[in-house]
Amino acid sequence: MTELVRTNLPTLKKTASYYVVHVTVAALVAYAVTGNFLLAITLSLLEPTVQAFAFFFHEKAWQRWGGQRVADPVAARA
What we know:
4 helices; mainly alpha
C-alpha cells in the first residue's frame, strides 16, 4: 500500500485538491437548490466522493493512453 501511495503521490494530491473544490461547490449548489443545510452537506459529500475515485482512475488511464502524442502527424496516419 505504501508503494502505491508513493508512486502515485502527485496524482493523489491533485485528487485531494479536486475533492475539496468539488465538495465546496457541490455544497453551495445543493444549498441554493434545497435551502436545507443538512441535505446540502449530505449531497455534497456523496457525489464528490464517488467522483474523486473516478477522477483518480481517469487520471491514471489518461497518463497511460490519453496523453501520448506523435511527433509527426503524417506518420501517425500511416
